[in-house]
Amino acid sequence: MAVRYQISGSTSAAISASVETGIRADALAPGTPLPAVRALATELGVSPATVARAYQELRQRGLVVTAGRHGTRVRPRPPVAGRRAALHPRPAPGTRDLSQGYPDPRLLPPLGPHLAALAAEIGPPVGYASTALLPTFAEAARDRLAADGVPAEEITVTGGALDGIERLLVAHLRPGDAVAVEDPGWANLLDLVAALGLRPIGVPVDDDGPTEAGVRDAVALGARALVVTSRAQNPTGAAVSAERAGALRELLAGRPDLLLVEDDHAAELARVPLHPLAGATPAWAFVRSVSKPFGPDLRLAVLAGDEATVSRVAGRARVGAGWVSTVLQRLVLSLWRDPATAELVRRSGEEYERRRTGLLAALATRGLAGRGRSGINIWLPVPDETSVVTALRDAGWSVAPGALYRIGAGPGIRITVSALDDADLVPVADAVARALRPAPPGRFTA
Question: Residue 301: in which H helix or E strand, if any?
């Protein structure tokens, strides 16, 4: 048995720093339980109030989470870099990885030809004063958003969807404010909310998006912001329908105290129509990333919104990172303008659709009702995540446990279809069925 990490300190600041050191050094792994407040206070010779303050600070910084009778534990992905943080987590040896939620590299457009053309035409180096949102890029971005019904008079660019959402939340909210998030929802967003010291309020999600009742309850509980995934919701594949969009618009109409954020991360890859909520509240933003359709290494998202919101995000960027690389903007613009790339993205969307619906159908024939209206993931409710994930690992398949994505929602697993081929669909469905309904042990006979 491993020796327990010894937390030290005589003040709340020293105790919280000691816990953070343990996390950085990988001595306190994700999910590790911390000692009870009174037990640690006795061990350190301090008052329980001192330990309670230390744990509160760690919670506000998103390093730990408290779950009632289950005590305080290190978060699954605490916002602090450990010694092995740069190493990509690997699935168990010998297993196929269906856990990551990444697009299929085989379906991404090649960047080489566009980079070569860009190198030939980019011109002399630019200086600090001349870097900003490129007019040609802004014009193309507005046209693409307007085609989907998103008002885009005011836009800016950020370093990806999560960067844009972080800037929006920081610009409008303060630590302790409540944020309504989908439940189950995007793990990175849940981690970000915790790291910013914000208080998450879970909103149930069905195939048509966040439920009207869930949003109404979150607003009644004091939510200062609402984050909605337009389509290809992670992890359930939900997509906001026209009917749901109408109901939510009516519910949110004119609320001056609520920031509405829409995340359209799948963008051109999605095979369902967009029904935006943009403009339903005075403070709103619509964020569209290029990572899923064009490549995860393209860290760029277009952010449209009301004038004050876009101004806050752009202004905050100027005193921080400064701007999104104009080289990157030119590269994305080249991809947007290329008919061959557009056709490849269209075919990729159809391929993901075929894999996802094929796996859902295979699961259905085995009596298993998965969810996945759009996108590259399937969500399957299960009675016990640990046993199912373990059984699938033993059968050669790595899937993601639902605990990473949920606040109060029931247990489940997330299966990413990106790495699946046609020949894999039936074996995966069979393995899931066996994991959920294992064969009874054989009987001994005389």
Answer: strand 301-305
What's this model's pTM, rounded to 2 decimal places? Answer: 0.85
CA distance 287 to 274: 13
* Burial class of residue 328 in the structure, from the number of CB atoms within 10 Å of its CB (0-12 exposed, 13-18 middle, 19+ buried): middle
Inter-axis angle of helices 425-436 and 339-364, to 10 degrees? 40
- Cα–Cα distance, 330 to 116 (Å, whole number): 12
Q: Which two tokens stand for residue 298?
A: 């393209």
**pLDDT tens-digit profile of 331-390?**
999 999 999 999 999 999 999 999 999 999 999 999 999 999 999 999 999 999 999 999
Q: Using CA atoms, how far apart are residues 305 and 313, in angstroms rounded to an integer?
A: 10
369 is written with which tokens?
């009702």
Would the CA dihedral through 82, 88, 89, 92 be positive or negative? negative
The DSSP secondary-structure symbol of 8 reads -
Q: Is the pLDDT of residue 445 over 60?
A: no
pLDDT 10s digits, 21-47: 998 888 898 888 999 999 999 999 999
d(CA 254, CA 250): 9
Residue with token string 């109409």: 253
Whether the ω angle into residue 184 lies within 30 degrees of 0, i.e. cis, is yes
From the number of C-beta atoms within 10 Å of its C-beta (0-12, 13-18, 19+), residue 255 rates as middle
